[in-house]
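Objective 1.3, modelling of assemblies. Example input:
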Amino acid sequence: MLRAEGLTKRYRQGEVEITALDDFSYDFPPGVTAVVGPSGSGKTTLLNLLAGFDRPTAGTVELAGMRIDDLGEDERASVRLKNAGFVFQSWNLLPTLTALENVAFPLLLAGVARAERNRRARELLERVGLAGRADHRPNQLSGGEQQRVAIARALALEPAVLFADEPTGNLDSAAGAKVLDLLLEHAAGERRLVLVTHDLQVAARAARVLHLRDGRLVQVEDRG
Amino acid sequence: MELLVLVWRNLTARLTRSLFTWLGIAVATASMVLFLSFGEGLRQALAAEMGNMGPQIRVVAQGTDAFSPPLPELPPEMLGQIEALAPALGIQRIIPAVVMFRGGFDPATSFLFYGLPEGADPRDFYPPAKAAAGRIDPHPDGAVVGAKKAELNHLTLGKPLRLSREVTVPVVGVLEPAGSMVDSFIFVPMKTLQEVLGTKNYGVFLLQLDPTADVEEVARKLEAAIPGIDAQSTTEALKFAERALRIGDLIRFGISLVALVVGGLLVANTVMMSVYERTREFGVMRAIGARRRFIFGLVLSEALFLALAGGVAGVIAGVAGSALINTYTQQAVGLALSAVTPRLALFSMGVALVLGLVAGLLPARNASRIPVTEALGRI
Ligand SMILES: Nc1ncnc2c1ncn2[C@@H]1O[C@H](COP(=O)(O)OP(=O)(O)OP(=O)(O)O)[C@@H](O)[C@H]1O
Ligand SMILES: [Mg+2]
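Predicted structure (tokens):
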């Protein structure tokens, strides 16, 4: 499960206080939920709080049956490792590791033995159509391929929730479509995908679209 | 194991920088190893010199220090005085000797002559001594030359050796190399040397004691009984030398500390820069679920790895440098002055590691404390 209640984040910049997210409440159902809104409306802030990268000024976040808003850094990291996967706009991969090693990285953190790790990483790369690129470094991969490796890595520990912040933002439409298809494909069943985008065509593929404006949730569009 | 792969990948990704840092630590460690190897070498040489002789006392005229050749200032009747005391003090053998040093600035023009009485030979100075050619005994009127001295001055059997304008003796024996000071000595009959010096006095009495005797106690009793002498025991000399060596070690370590600090700053700088450049990388790791300890360990391991690799290279270079120094000092003074003992190698590795640890701690702490959102935001 993924649920936010009264989620608020304020940043203080000297004298000025910015409310980046204001009293956000939503219970994310399984499937794809898109978050849209103009630049600066608080989309990334929301994602950071839901994923436990940051702690809210007020409100609660429940991820996989656990309150994470009052957990410490390392505890949140552990919850993330087992329950959440991420795809950012760019620069997702560890540059000194090969595609295979990048995908295996969460498994390494989780303490999976080497042989098993490599077997699963290879399988995941196959699922995103990159079996032939296992030994490439990120700088030897195209932007679209890099995003697909990031998706494979996000899926490595079978997380309950996937977070994606503008995953197609840096890609041309063909590569973007491929990445999006992969993401949507793996958000089937009980899994949840929170997809931040300002591309309305991307948002149109989601079951629900949350509209943010000035940090407030102004509209929930259910597309059935 | 897996952490090491990450460390290795990152260090090789910035190869030139890593190599320079590694070299810096290697040079710093090697310089420390070399500096300190002198102390260790002297210690070993001393222990070899003294350890070969068993409990011994050197009697010289008061005011002669432990390491310079004694002047012939002990009158002949003193021999009788000591002989009279010998049974009570456990003195088994008394070897009177005369020493003559003819100095030059380089080893080829310096000569150290030992005049030995009949019945004494180089083995009384260095028990394992052996003749490589000719005799080991200089009597009745020849010279037995240490290996180094023979090589340096091309002294072979039968060659004449001039002690003064009037006195010349033939070389009757050449010793095998011993790795001891004996290598630079020339042994001649005592009568001959006394004649050259124009004296009936002795320069030194070497007393060999009963193995159960308390050397320092005997030395004290001798000094009390016979005024005007210094009775120097081997243990006392060793203690004195050890104290001097310790001070020398401290000074040498102090000097090499400068190089070490520079090496440490190099590591700190390399790791700090690499941490700064990889902020985003650490952000991604943390986002995926790495704990702060993981990042801390990763960065610290990099510093330690650099320090360890540099330390190993430094010790190896130090061993090579020490061997080089020894080939020179063997020629010059017949002694291996530099030694890289296991404990010195271990100590140097330890210092290099501590260096890496100290240099790595701050960058590691910084890297592990950057908030995830900030790290992700920085590219
Ligand atoms: N660390 C911070 N310190 C101060 N203000 C911040 C910080 N992070 C975000 N903000 C502010 O909070 C607001 C929301 O930012 P956020 O990054 O969530 O917007 P966004 O919807 O993701 O925009 P974009 O579409 O441009 O990515 C903005 O006004 C931003 O300036
Ligand atoms: Mg954003």
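Chain B touches chain A at residues 2, 6, 9-10, 13, 280-281, 284-294, 371-373, 376, 379 (CB under 8 Å).
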